[in-house]
Amino acid sequence: MVFVSRLHHTGSPMKVRTSRSLGLSMLGLALFLKTVSLYLRVIRMTIKAARRMSINQQRLKQSLETQSQLHMQVEALGVQELDFSEPQYLVECRVQSATSAHGLPRPALAVRNLMEQARFAHLCTVMSRMHHRREGYPFGSLVDFAPDTMGHPIFSFSPLAIHTRNLLADPRCTLVVQIPGWSGLSNARVTIFGDVYPLPEHQQEWAHKQYVAKHQQGTSQQWGNFYYFRMQNISDIYFIGGFGTVAWVDVKEYEELKPDKIAVDGGELNLKELNATFSKPLRKLLSTEAEVDDAALISIDSKGIDIRVRQGAQFNIQRLSFEEGKAVETLEEAKAALWNVIKKGRVQNLKK
């Protein structure tokens, strides 16, 4: 019994050593598998990075191709590109040159005229927290407006509209105004940066009168659950007038200028009457260079008119200047100036 017991006890250390060896082997295997897992993760990350790099290279290539195509289109249109590395005064000189060459009002006045003639615009506000996952994104909506005597737009908003809620949370916005009869990127447009606030109760009636004067609407069409807002502060104005005119407009100059009388009085009604009289004679005048299917006046100022010309499915804008030194202020003066140009066959007055 003693002998057997000794044999039994002498075998125990061997089993312990075997267990320890097995444990060490398992630990080594676990470390090896973990190392392999890390190695595979690094490989996957490398592959993803390579894919992203490849995608970015493709996007860069597409961007360069698009830019090259735009350059070709610009050259085909005969438009001289602005070098934005130039000093600002050189850019301003080019704008003044284009304005003078085409008989256009200076940019600040052109914007005032555009604000008077346009009735609708695109308002871009910042989405509020009320919309959760959309918070912070720009929100665009189509609105009508009326400018006051300083050119600040007045709006009529429903409290239920998303843009109204956005403005109450954050008044910062931009207003994009396009020339009536918009048909393409050659048309005039302006982006106005500013802060819009609700008008106090004692100014609501005043704003309503401004609105009725612009839109010829009765009280039943805009009065009720609508409240008037105003862009109280204008911080910047960016104008693209076509015919090579691109400019940041001085806000103070814009506010101090008065729009052309012909652009304010009558507005849409004047254009409707002028088109009824001059659309066919203008089409005939323009057809001396190339066949024209339709010609419509879309804008007028003291120096001339903008004409939307259709040739088949293609549209473009042409500028017809009045006689130099004769500013047009009334509808009758505009009619006389247009008949004078048409009778003389003054095709050279046309600028694309």
UniProtKB/TrEMBL annotation:
Keywords: Membrane, Transmembrane, Transmembrane helix
Membrane-traversing stretches: 22-43
Domain CREG-like beta-barrel: 111-255
Transmembrane in keyword set: yes
Pfam families: CREG_beta-barrel (PF13883)
InterPro entries found in the cross-reference section: CREG_beta-barrel, Haem_oxidase_HugZ-like_sf, Split_barrel_FMN-bd
Protein name as it appears in the record: CREG-like beta-barrel domain-containing protein
Species whose genome carries this gene: Hibiscus sabdariffa (roselle)
